[in-house]
Amino acid sequence: MERNYMQAGNYRTGCSALLFLNSNKARANINKIAENCRLVCQLAGLDLSMETVVSKGPDRSIDRDVVNELITCLLTGRYEVVVVKAMEEITGDKADLMEFLMDAANIGIIFFELNTMQFYSSNGLEMTGQRKPRKGDATWE
Predict the structure, then answer these.
(1) Number of domains in the chain
(2) Greater confidence, 38 or 122?
């Protein structure tokens, strides 16, 4: 598949992206959130897919089946970016997050955080500069 990329800093725009949400909302509300995310991603130059991987559960931990679903989607080669509201939605454990980011990088995947409008690579830093800790952000000490 021929892709039309525009180089912008350390990342390319026009990349295909997959949305990952950690939410217990109803499917109709998830669809509304996804549509809003799609509009924001367009501003960042991302082509957000209609496909969304959603983790639902009684706590913020991601279900193993959802992780497998996300990995399966990424291994298809259709996506280059995973879009999340916040990196902490993947996991609150810094070591687990770093390992997940490294595994994703091994198959050419980067992450885009909607809350900060920043791209993240396997080293846990913004691809456009080092991420600044936010107040109350225990994950990024």
Answers:
(1) 1
(2) 38
